[in-house]
Known about the structure:
The structure holds two protein chains of two kinds.
Chain A: E1 7-10, H1 16-21, E2 28-32, H2 42-53, E3 56-59, H3 73-86, E4 90-94, E5 97-100, E6 103-109, H4 115-132, E7 137-139, H5 154-165, E8 168-172, H6 173-183, H7 187-193, E9 199-205, E10 208-210, E11 214-219, H8 228-241, E12 246-249, H9 257-275
Parallel strand pairs in A: 1-2, 1-12, 2-3, 3-4, 4-7, 7-8, 8-9, 9-12
Antiparallel strand pairs in A: 5-6, 10-11
Helix pairs in contact in A: 4-5, 7-8, 8-9
Chain B: H1 3-15, H2 26-29, H3 34-52, H4 54-60, H5 62-75, H6 90-95, H7 106-121, H8 129-134, H9 137-142, E1 145-147, E2 152-156, H10 161-167, E3 182-187, E4 194-197, H11 200-210, H12 215-225, H13 231-241, E5 244-246, H14 250-253
Antiparallel strand pairs in B: 1-5, 2-3, 3-4
Helix pairs in contact in B: 3-5, 4-5, 4-7, 7-10, 11-12
Amino acid sequence: MTAPLGAGLGLKPQHGAAALACPADGLWFEVHAENAMVAGGPRLHWLEVARAAHPLSLHGVALSLAGAAPPDSAHLQRLARLVRRLAPALVSEHLAWSGWGESYFPDLLPFPRTSEALRRIAAHVDQTQTALGTRIAIENPSHYLRIEGHEWDEVDFLAELAARTGCGLLLDVNNVHVSARNLAFDAQAYVDRFPGDPVMEIHLAGHSCDPALGPTLLIDSHDTPVAPPVWALYRRVVARIGARPTLIERDGKVPSFDELLAERAIAADVLRRSAQPSEVAA
Amino acid sequence: MTPQAFQSAFARALFAPPQDGGGPLAALTAQPAFAVYRNTVMQGCVDALEANFPAVARLVGRDWFRAAAALYAASRPPQDPRLLFYGDGFAAFLEAFEPARELPYLPGVARLDRSWIEAHAAADDSVDLAWFASLGPDALGAARVAPHPAARWHWFPGQPVFTIWRRNRGAGEDGEIAWQGEGALLTRPHDTVQWRAASPADCALLDACAAGCPLANAAAAALRVQPDADPAQLLAGLLVAGAIVPAPMAIEGETP
């Protein structure tokens, strides 16, 4: 039997052997799927070594599930090959688009949440789950813009997407905090309404203020430690829905592995406490 | 608005100058936060090019490189979501780029940076020295070999591109550079990309092998470009470098 996934970290090549040899209980690693879509060579070999030591999560950023067009079939096949080769414990993608025509834009772009978009995205998620032969988790993105034409609230949209396709959800708590600040909604109310059962994974990350606009616009920058209000939201979520595999994302100004491990220990502690409701008896 | 119209207008606005206020998404693009998307997309493209072309970036300096990369990104956004492969046309772009005119070796350096990525990410294959050793002289001439999937080779007439590239990949050499044509061979027999100088004969032999010629014809092609070359030595050198593998057909091919 495999150990349950506890708190995980993004796998950084610069952390090398220290990361793979780390014996922390429940540790798992997440990688961006696109970085591993190569025919051969050291990137794949390194992931196979990592996979032998710890569970792996493949986090896609480019399937463009909210795109007007279906996911690119070559890209989907590459993802399917990677899933077969690495047998990841989790596979996830975003409620966003990033491709238009022949072009790919390295970002997670927004769209009006209409009923038509829900039908379209559900079809794309179905297609993806069929191609991969596995359930995927869909992540709530960070928001910066007020978009006209929404027919659905994001929580309801994601809940309905999960109900229609059987997909899981990835609740990014930092994205909720960032979006709530930028669009002036209540982050606590958002996480309190988020459907708990489909949540397969939780993301935590740091954010920063926009260099031009200051604290009125938060950027999901992944280059700082997780902020206190995000930890508070996280505790609130776990208290309500129970423990879920939780990732600390760090993509910029990456500190030492030990520093990340110390931050990860906070999440691991939250998860451990939620798994032992009768702490006194224990 | 259809999803197609929304995405098309959004995509156009990502690369349009901020003062292009019009368009069907004016209410979106007029928000200061639209710049977050513009900046993230552009920074993602430019960061990827800087990572993929380190020798070019080191030669021209970070500011020059990022300015040129931004122009390239605006005219040719990525098509492949694997940003490791972004910059397929960057060498050709630099060739036609007026401010780079004084650095005629720059496109060649970009080609070697690109070749490094291709070698790094290519399929694995094992170099079968025993197979070569087992071939008698007759069978050797008829044998077909293929370049290893990770092998990349270039000849740069008139420009010491390989030396310039190597020195800007942190190879730590200095001294006078002899201003003459140079070739380069990049291979990755195992996990690490390796490089060495390549002669015109090496390149001709590899070209012929890639085109499916038997070794005897490939050796003849090498001799045509470099009459004093020794085909046996060329072959031995390419084998040791891990640049060639038995062609898939060679097993069943037997003697003609």
